[in-house]
Amino acid sequence: MSATHSVEAIKKHNKLYLAIFAALLVGTVVTVLLRSVHFPAFWITVAVALFVATIKATLVACFFMHLISEKKAIYAMLAATVFFFAAMMYIMIWARDQVPKGSEYTSDKHIPYPAASGGAY
Amino acid sequence: MEIPFVAKARPDTGLYNAKVGIWLFLASEVMLFGALFSAYILLRVGADPGTWPQGLLNVPIGTMNTAVLITSSVTVVLGWSALKLGDFRTYRKYQAVTILCALTFLVVKCLVEYPEKFKHYEVWKKDGTRMTGHVEGNPLFLTEAKMAKANMASIKFTPDHHFYFAAAPAHGAAAADAHPPAVEIKREEIKRLSAFTPAHSTYFGVYFTLTALHGLHVLAGALVIAYIWGPGARMWKTDPEQYMNRVEVSGLFWHFVDLVWIFLFPVFYLL
Question: pTM of this prediction?
Answer without folding.
Answer: 0.88
